[in-house]
């Protein structure tokens, strides 16, 4: 079994949330040690340490608990990039795990420091350094208990044809048009748009009124996590869209784990180590989404109702998609499977 050291920040910042999924997997597959954080060292084991640190990093008491600037081995500090050392057969390999949504290398200093740099939203057409490898976008809100709950939803009754519950982030006009197109489909559906903070109130209110006019429910607060998952699990078709910066959001893990029949407007540009296959793990409407996250040509949104109607008319195809999503999660995206991939890449690098 390999030895893996995580160089944790001294302070309880967002690093824990963005590295938690990978730490959970590595704790299953390697002898994982945590270095650099006095608070983490107080816990009786790796799993309790990560769980406690994650809870504390979300706590209102977090500023009181910060005890100094984070330290990384010659790599500076960035809350979205974790630094590790893997030891295999006497060879030490420096590893950085970059969980940022954008396609660029988040921490160039970490790239200089490391031997392998894994990026969760790596675009295959970009001219990266040869050390930059793809990585599943780990969802830091998940743990083993929540993953078990998501898997239990694979057998949930499908009493709604289409469900879309999404946050209205960047590219707002595009997503509003998606909701408007779905509202046209004659089927049972649950369409909920969450308007998050940080935008002009006048613009937000205008978009809310536009969506409410076609029957979309709008909210200013998030649904509780398990309530959200139960609603998503009701869908015969679960509609998804890219996250910020056209990323494959870490929320992609939730519908994969629950075995949803996923329909994208268009699959985002990044690719995970095992690429998702159209017709096997997901379907898409083929919308020509601009890379600047703006809206597509108006006629592209006409593809949405026809794609939904074709899928609803083919129950066998939906069953194939549900089985494919669940299989992908179990084989490639569960925490321990992500750890297997990391360990295998490090082994191949160490062996030359």
Please give a structural write-up.
- The chain has 13 helices and twelve strands.
- With 352 residues, the chain is an alpha/beta fold.
- It has a six-stranded mixed β-sheet. It has a six-stranded parallel β-sheet with strand order 9-8-7-10-11-12, sandwiched between helices.
- The protein is globular and about 60 Å long.
- The chain starts with a strand and ends with a helix.
State the share of residues found in helices, binned by percent.
25-40%
Low-confidence stretches: 59-71
Describe the biggest sheet? 6 strands, mixed
- Binned strand content: 15-25%
Give the topology.
Layout: E1 3-7, H1 15-29, E2 31-35, H2 38-41, H3 46-57, H4 62-65, E3 81-88, E4 91-98, H5 108-113, E5 116-119, E6 132-134, H6 144-152, E7 160-167, H7 172-183, E8 189-194, H8 201-212, E9 217-219, H9 225-232, E10 235-240, H10 253-257, E11 262-264, E12 283-284, H11 303-312, H12 315-333, H13 335-350
Parallel strand pairs: 1-2, 4-5, 5-6, 7-8, 7-10, 8-9, 10-11, 11-12
Antiparallel strand pairs: 1-3, 3-4
């Amino acid at each position: 079994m390999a030895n893996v050291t995580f160089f944790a920040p001294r302070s309880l910042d967002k690093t824990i949330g963005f590295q938690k999924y990978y730490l959970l997997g590595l704790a299953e597959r390697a002898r994982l040690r945590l270095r650099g954080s006095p608070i983490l060292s107080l816990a009786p084991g790796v799993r309790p340490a990560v769980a406690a640190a994650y809870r504390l990093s979300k706590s209102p008491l977090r500023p009181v608990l910060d005890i100094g600037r984070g330290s990384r081995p010659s790599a500076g500090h960035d809350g979205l990039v974790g630094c590790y050392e893997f030891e295999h057969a006497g060879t030490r390999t420096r590893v950085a795990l970059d969980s940022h949504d954008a396609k660029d290398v988040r921490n160039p200093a970490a790239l200089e420091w490391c031997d392998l740099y894994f990026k969760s939203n790596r675009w295959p057409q970009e001219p990266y350094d040869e050390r930059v490898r793809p990585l599943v976008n780990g969802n830091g809100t998940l743990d083993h208990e929540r993953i078990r709950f998501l898997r239990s939803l694979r057998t949930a009754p499908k009493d709604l044809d289409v469900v879309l519950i999404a946050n209205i982030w960047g590219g707002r006009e595009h997503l509003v048009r998606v909701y408007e197109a779905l509202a046209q489909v004659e089927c049972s559906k649950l369409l909920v748009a969450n308007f998050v903070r940080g935008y002009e109130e006048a613009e937000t209110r205008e978009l809310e009124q536009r969506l409410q006019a076609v029957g979309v429910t709008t909210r200013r607060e998030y649904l509780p996590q398990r309530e959200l998952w139960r609603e998503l699990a009701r869908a015969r078709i679960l509609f998804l869209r890219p996250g910020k910066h056209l990323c494959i959001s870490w929320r992609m893990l939730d519908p994969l784990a629950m075995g949803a029949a996923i329909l994208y407007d268009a699959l985002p540009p990044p690719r995970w180590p095992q690429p998702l296959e159209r017709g096997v793990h997901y379907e898409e409407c083929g919308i020509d989404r601009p890379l600047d996250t703006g809206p597509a040509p108006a006629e592209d949104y006409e593809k949405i109702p026809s794609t939904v109607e074709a899928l609803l008319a083919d129950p066998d195809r939906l069953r194939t998609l549900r089985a494919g999503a669940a299989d992908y999660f179990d084989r490639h995206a569960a925490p321990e499977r992500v750890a297997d991939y990391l360990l295998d890449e490090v082994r191949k690098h160490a062996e030359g």
